[in-house]
Amino acid sequence: MIPDKIYEVLPYAYVAVGSAVMLATNAWLLVVCGFLMVCAGAVVWVLRSDNRRSDIKAARSKYGGILPFWCYELLPFSYFMLALLLFALSNNIYFYPSAMILLVIGMQLWLLRGSYRKHQRPVLHTGPLRSRG
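^ thats the sequence. predicted structure below, dont judge the formating
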């Protein structure tokens, strides 16, 4: 079993390591590996986020918008990864302002989603159950 402190940090570590690999090299194979690492972190974060949401599921679908679930959930990561790909693969400095804008939008959406959902870790009850009476 993985300790809780390590378990909670894993999606962020996947995104950070994948981003660092993408930015540190020009080899296309390493860029693809970094891209896949960021995708793995994004999927893990989305699955945990959806599992820990405290709002009502019917309200989510009512106000979810027109995008399908996975498109909506991976949108911040898409902006983030597109910006990283522009930084990593482009030699033209005129793409860098667009990459910065995409990076800021992706990070802002990711932080807003995390703050709106009020993620709560599941509470495990280890004691005996009390009967009401």
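The CA atoms of residues 8 and 121 lie 9 Å apart.
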